Amino acid sequence: MNSPSTTDKQTLDAVLDGLMRRYTERVPDVRAVIDAMIDAGIIQTSDEIENDHIAFRTMGVPNLGLASFEKIFLHYGYERRDEYNFIEKKLSAYWYAPPAPEYPRIFASELRVDELSDEAQRIIHNYTDTVTSDPVDALNLDDAEAVDQFLHQPLWQTPTLADYQTLLKESEYAAWVIYNRYYLNHFTISVHNLKPGYSTIDEFVAFLTDRGLRLNSAGGTIKVSPDGDLRQASTVAQMIDAEFTGGDVFRIAGSYVEFAERRVLPPFRDLPADQITRQHRREGFETGNADKIFESTFTTQTGN
Ligand code: OOG
Ligand code: NI
């Protein structure tokens, strides 16, 4: 890990705050989960929550996609790590390690647009072709306000409902990105450091279910990596009233909340609990888990 300068940290803090603020406003489940945790005495304030990772989705076309998007966080000292491939969903993803352990990891994915049908490609390019140079190159990445604006601005024209629905039939991911763009897709509550009774994903999922939260059931509620050490669950995305070009308003999937348990790796299992830190636990992500977590925004889960 390289150590970021104080100014880089201040900029990153401000960018992350801006993302979390808008995300909390548009995803009522964030507040619902935090309030339930406070009510149950698991935490006193939301500051105690450890954010395992945040996630973004991108459109893989020239001037956009991961090659453009990742420059923002690489600038703040994030480092690109493993690649993941989702053949059926036509997605590629990487995770990025943070510049210091108090920051969340990033999971960022990209739709391989050139693998879609001609019609879907035509629709996507109709919007994205208006971006004729990499917009991140034009950004002053040391200006937190400019970056915050960028992440929440329309990168292309708001789609029509007809285009959204055509994309939805072929790629739910494409439909999500054409409307939601770089809005934070989810943040992730680490459960393994919570107090006894809530520190395994099974216990935490039981708690959430008890409190009436609706969880993604694709492939089973709890997604477990083959090594058994990365265990994840997520809420079903909340619906937002989206306004389309032409004035149509339609309820579409917004963002969701994820929960992760990273188990202590076999060589460190005998270490006393107070000596366990992030580097003793399972790192990275898992294709099989992620494949199902993507579906948190899909109509098969939202039911809309
Ligand atoms: C990302 C889904 C994958 C994880 O932790 O494996 C994921 C998305 O829905 O964009 O978040
Ligand atoms: Ni995730």
TrEMBL record:
Broadest EC class assigned to this enzyme: oxidoreductase
Keyword annotations: Dioxygenase, Iron, Oxidoreductase
Protein origin, superkingdom: Bacteria
TM annotation in the entry: none
Any one GO MF annotation of this record: dioxygenase activity
Enzyme Commission code: 1.13.11.93
Gene3D superfamilies linked to this entry: 3.10.180.50
Cofactor(s) listed: Fe(2+)
Keyword Oxidoreductase: yes
Family from the record: Belongs to the 2-oxoadipate dioxygenase/decarboxylase family.
Name assigned to this protein: 2-oxoadipate dioxygenase/decarboxylase
